[in-house]
Amino acid sequence: xxxxxxxxxxxxxSRLPGFYKLSIDERINIVKSWANLSEGExxxxxxxxxxxxxxxxxxxxxxxxxxxxxxxxxxxxRINGKDYLVPMVLEEPSVVAAASNxxxxxxxxxxxxxxxxxxxRQLMIGQVHLMKVPSPRxxxxxIMRRKEELLELANSTNQTLVKLGGGAKDVExxxxxxxxxxxxxxxxIVDVLDAMGANTVNTMVEAIAPYLEKIVGxxxxxxxxxxxxxxxxxxxxxxxxxxxxxxxDVAEKIVDASAIAEADIFRAVTHNKGxxxxxxxxxxxxxxxxxAIEAGVHAYASRSGAYKPLxxxxxxxxxxxxxxxxxxxxxxxxxxxxxxxxxAQIALKILGIKTAKELAEVMAAVGxxxxxxxxxxxxxxxxxxxxxxxxxxxxxxxxxxxxxxIDIVVDEMIKEGKITFDKxxxxxxxxxxxxxxxxx
Length: 440
Ligand code: MEV
Fold this sequence. Notes:
The protein contains 19 helices and 10 strands. The protein has 440 residues and is α+β, with helices and mostly antiparallel strands. The chain has 4 domains: 2-59, no CATH class; 71-113 and 233-382, 3-hydroxy-3-methylglutaryl-coenzyme A Reductase, Chain A, domain 2, CATH 3.90.770; 123-226, 2-Layer Sandwich (Alpha-Beta Plaits); 385-439, Helicase, Ruva Protein, domain 3. α12 (265-285) packs across α16 (356-379), α17 packs across α18 and α18 (404-416) crosses α19. The chain starts with a helix and ends with a helix. (R)-mevalonate binds at residues 92, 270-271, 273-274, 277, 374-375, 378, 383.
């Protein structure tokens, strides 16, 4: 029996020519026999939820289903004096609750304006890497001499963007040493306005590459956007009276936590992970390219040569807690999946966002609030208290509690220090019984 199974495993092949041409049902059938899926599992796969299968197939290849993640609203956000409901998509408990809680406290920051945030112009960098260029330093000068021609050529690929005030704005040239010889790196700086911009920029660099080869000789190798979006920076900052966040002692300890993250890379990474909990949750809700955001952010955290926290916390001369966050954010509100995913459109509508710049500002503000929430929890009760409460709540609901019984069961589990499914059932039975008795 064992050897037959092993044989079947051996003949299984992942080589599936034409898989992409099949219908969703046909693909599912193949995967069903590959993984021995049950009818129940197949019908779950076929439930696309709020994503029309046609849209899913227009978004990516080889689709066999859709996967729903919770979409939640972080409440209480006040950013630059304006109130926002913030849609967040993620799988981790406590993050939304923590963001809402922090946002409630930070409403009092900056003289009641809430969190302040400011994003720069939406400038992306497109790169052309040229190898085998004779006299690369001279070539760099020749490219700069033809800057206006290059900009014109790049802009001829996207008249609409230019009409709206965007487009290629500048050129930079670098000469770098690689393991395969000298490389001439040309940067095209493009104002992408409300788009994430990768497509726009890629089209432009592909258009200018042959002209660059003509000017300087050599061969272009890579013609692609850089996700190190150092000209597309969003900042968020708060200044708050410690009385709104639990007192001077809490504020001092938050500053300690910030200093620790500055000094210890192991902590800095987790510190930044907490920031990204908020940023990526909003990115997912609005269907952004979150991999681009992550890649850019972590490189930016290392820009000094050492990986550092993206935010810092301090106490100012008046004794107020001051927090500042700075990060590159490459986000768009037009084009790509933002446009095609209907729920992303709803998320933008809930946010009431009109520009990519404003979206970047909100995301930076959420990142700072999330960071504040994490540090405050860590230096006071610890992170597990909140997690355990949520865990207990999930267990109580799974056990069948509803209404006020949820809180009763949760509190009792925490009091007894026994947060298990069996305990939830036991308590639920006990309280249901005493409820029944009191009704007789
Ligand atoms: C957990 O998802 C995020 C935290 O670890 C962040 C932090 O430690 O600052 C709580």
